[in-house]
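Observation: inputs received (chain + pyridoxal-5'-phosphate).
Thought: call the complex predictor directly.
Action: predict_structure
Action Input:
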Amino acid sequence: MSIRSDVIWMDGKMVPYDQANVHVLSHTLHYGLGVFEGIRSYAQADGSGGIFKLDQHISRLFDSAKMCRIAMPYTFEQIREACLQTLKANKLNAGYIRPLVYLGHGQMGLGAQKNQVHVAIAVWPWGAYLGEEGMNKGIRAGTSSFTRHAVNSNLQRAKVVGHYVNSILARYEAIDHGYEEAIMLDQNGYVAEGTGENLFAIRYGKIKTPPITNILGGITRETAIEIMRRHGHEVIETTFGRDALYVADEVFMTGTAAEVTPIREIDHRTVGNGSPGAICKQVQKTYLEGVAGKVDWMLPSITTYTV
Ligand SMILES: Cc1ncc(COP(=O)(O)O)c(C=O)c1O
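Observation:
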């Protein structure tokens, strides 16, 4: 699927795709201090578009910027409106939205604090991040040899550009080993998250997910927890090791890009009976129906627009 669009929003202007460039001395390009979001819009039954949890994503973008001492040059409302306008300008009633806050050029070095802060918002159509087959049958995953960021090494609550080097190294390694995704452990060996997803493990109906101490507080994670609680399940936020995954009946990942993706095999051990389990399927179904406007209680989380 191509990421080419007609226009990209850059600092308040719609810029044609081929002209949406940055200077090679842009500070973020060298050192990784920048923040971003990943948001999805879904086609609704009447043909309009609907962005899922737009405000929560923009809040997280502002939180990320604040934690990194990046002064946002636009208001919450301006960024919100820009996301909608970019989708409309590209005539997309469904797609992925990528706001990026980055530092411009002028000063080099790690102490530079005077570079202009820029914001760009790109949109493109994006199918199942871990593959359509993965969504239906589950993916194969492997624990990574790369340790997830330690609590005080970085700001895990923030979605920072540079954090993703760790994720990319783990994902490359997983692909080299024939897996679709990596499961990352923290510095104590406990399960942390995927390279761009949160993770849930279920055994004997008990649902566990790592607490938000050294992982990104996923917006899909929060939605999945709400779905499970509304279906009468208890979800426990607790630490656990990879052994808990090896004996789990169900394991699945959540993320804006990955949505709700079952895992059918971890480190060559079959998860449950090797196909998506009942709770995972229930969460996936409700999530995908909900983002498409078919679940009443999820409707307030959708911002609709017409293209
Ligand atoms: C490292 C990491 N963990 C978890 C997630 C899932 O977060 P969300 O559900 O808000 O997309 C993401 C995606 O943004 C991520 O990059």
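Thought: report the result.
Final Answer: The helical segments are 27-31, 54-67, 76-89, 132-137, 164-176, 219-230, 242-246, 278-291. The chain has two domains: 7-124, 132-291.
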